[in-house]
Structures are given as structure tokens and as C-alpha cells.
Specification:
By secondary structure, the protein is of the alpha/beta class. It has helices spanning 7-12, 33-46, 54-60, 66-73, 79-89, 103-112, 125-134, 158-167, 181-190, 209-216, and strands spanning 20-23, 30-31, 98-99, 116-120, 143-145, 174-178, 193-197, 203-205. The radius of gyration is 17 Å and the shape is globular.
Length: 219
Amino acid sequence: MISKKSKISRKFENSSQIKAVLFDMDGVLLDSFEAWCRLFNATLMHFGKKEITRQQFREGAWARGSKVASKNFFDGMAVKKIVEFYCEHFNDYKKYVRKMKDVDIVLKKLKEKGLKLAIISNGFHKLVRIILKMGRLEDYFDIVVGTDDVKNAKPAPDMLLYACKKLGIKPEEAVMIGDTKYDVEAGRNAGCLAVGFKTDGDKRIESLKGLLKIIWRRT
């Protein structure tokens, strides 16, 4: 559990104006755990590996990025091969992908407010765009950043800093929202306000609409 507020989050209480919202994708905008778990096991079997349990997937691969998955479960296999299989076969599991409640409402309101929106995902850029398109969400976002766009995946700040630079804002003018400790740590490491979706962060929300209350106070 992450409970200690970052120094930058305390600055937000009275100062910084929010100009952008940086979203993790899986588990925040889209409920895709089942699709990923099934695809991951299909990928393991394709490359001659043994299937793993849902718990093993959640603890060792979910939200961790393909580089970590390669090291932990594929004996260091080239990440490119793993990602190519993902891209070719994710569509086979699209029936298991569902939008989270209130996604379109919240994204529309943020856009109407004039905020810039970005996707910050530990998935590879090409695959992230495939999944966004599948969920009919791609048009909301000004920029999509995947793990292959930078040197280090979350919880490193690389993707967030890259997005902020591209959007022309300072990190303290952005909110990072995610459902894992890696998202929260990445937000804090970058100097953004880290909002946890059903997990602890500088702020915690239980629904996406809760994000609007945080944003409206700072715009």
C-alpha cells in the first residue's frame, strides 16, 4: 500500500494548475485483465512454455511490460517476438475487453474543459493503439506513449516526462492516473500528481467520475 504523499503532491494543494491528464490504459480505461491473461498463456504455449495461473500473471506480468515478462516467463526471449504475437492475436480475445464505467463521459468532459490527454502504457506503442482503437477511444488522446518510445517503463518517469515535453507542459501541471503501484510511483517520480484508481496514491478515487472533482479544483 502506498500512503506517503510525495513532496510534489503537497505543492498541488495550493498552487499548480492542471493542464493535462495522463492515463494508464489497462485497468483504468479498459477492463482488459481477462483478455491479457488468456493471451499471455496462449503466447507462453506458442513458444513452448507452461501456462501460469491468474495469480502468477497478476503478480509477475500484469502492468509490468513485455521486457519484464520476457525475463520472468520467456527465459529472456527477444521482446519483439513476444510483442509480434500479441499484435497478431489480441483481436482473438477482444470479447473480453470492456470499457470501464463512465469512460466516455469523463474523457468528453476533460476535453471540453480544454485539457490535454495522454496514454501512458507499459505496452508497446503499436499494440496500445490497436487496443485503443478496439475500445473506440483513440480520438480522445493528444499523444500515446508506449514502453518502446522511451528507455525505461513505469515506475520510471521516462514516459511521463516524454509526454509532458511533447504536450508543452511542466510535470507539475499534469495528473497521472493508474490502477497499480507502478503508475503511482511513476507519477511521483516524474513530479506529477499521482492519482490511484482503486489504489492508494497522492489522491485515491473509486470511480472515474471522482477524477473530475480533483481536476475541477485545479483548473
